[in-house]
Please model this.
Amino acid sequence: MSFGDKRTLKVAVLGCGAVGSQVVRLLSEQHDDLAARVGAPVELVGVAVRRLDAARDVDVPDGLLTTDAHGLVARDDVDLVVEVIGGIEPARSLILSALDNGASVVTANKALLAEDGPTLFEAAAKAERDLYYEAAVAGAIPILRPLRESLAGDRVTRVLGIVNGTTNFILDKMDTSGAGFSEALEEAQELGYAEADPTADVEGFDAAAKAAILASLAFHSRVTAADVYREGISEVTAADVASARDMGSVVKLLAICELRPGPDGQEQVAARVHPAMIPRSHPLASVREAYNAVFVESEAAGQLMFYGPGAGGAPTASAVLGDLVTVARNRLAETRGAGESAYADRAVLPMGETRTRYHVAIDVDDRAGVLAAVANAFADHDVSIQTVRQEGRGADAQLVVVSHAAPDAALSATVDQLRSMDIVREVTSVMRVEGGEE
Model:
């Protein structure tokens, strides 16, 4: 295939782990197809790694491996840099150096984008280069580009998603097998879905970073991981999952980003990550095992759902290569894609002012007046009760209450009051409820 006078575009890859090795493999195996799609040859000229002798899933061509990442991104012949090492540093310094030296950048670094995205976007704008990051959220699922481009003419009002495969696998196993959290986590680790230290996943840090990126794109405002309210799934019990099943619901760790009216009437961004019960009729309820899905609501398009493998070397590399093709085309055309869109500059609504619904299970004394006392506790905080049912008798008596939507601070205060009441032996479960009738 002849490309006339089209020059070869040179690519440097930072990192050769699970994702980086698959990027290197695809660049080699799909060399001719990529050249045809881009409109010019694409040549891998270097792969930066920490150790030259480390075991790898792919054979890197001789002479391409280097431990000098800073030297690689500073080369004046590198057109595109792919960053898949993760973390904050040295990734931030390397990306800034690449942009400063005239390279466009494709990254999968959700943690860095959620912590310091504006610095990167400003550097890309100053250098007049692209910064693309589809692989940072939900692996192979195309969700960021639809938010940034396909829905650019629409008004997105809500993004609701399962964006962490590890936690979804654990909760799915708890639902289908009746296993407890520890047992399901152990299985996830044995199968390679969970790290030896699963904290980033099970405590919601990974999902919170992704929620910040989604909210920033959807609502044209700067949202960081620190702005996202976060709860993990380590406190979810088999009893919680069973109670959800009795309600015709399932427990999922959800990233929820939405526009809500603030105290002054102006729209604000509410961004949160926490486990929640959702009806089994909801599209997200059917997302099984380690899969991800993102549900988008907008004024004109209505409801859209994006589903697929949310992690893994090859799926994530697919998203990286998609960005690489776009960025390479832009380099040939001497143009650049859309940069950061933060014109709306909306404030972030505190979690306490965000309207949510609670499912509360309460061990109570089985005697007259208990139900009225519990109802009064909800009324004291102006929280309306949607449903209430009693399970068991005597020492086993339990009330299960589902509220209507109310400010989260009011619901939390209600639970604190319930815990202080003489008739309440224990508040055994508190979980938010999403979907269904409010």
Residues 313-333 form the longest helix (21 residues). The chain has a mean pLDDT of 93. The longest strand covers residues 249-261.
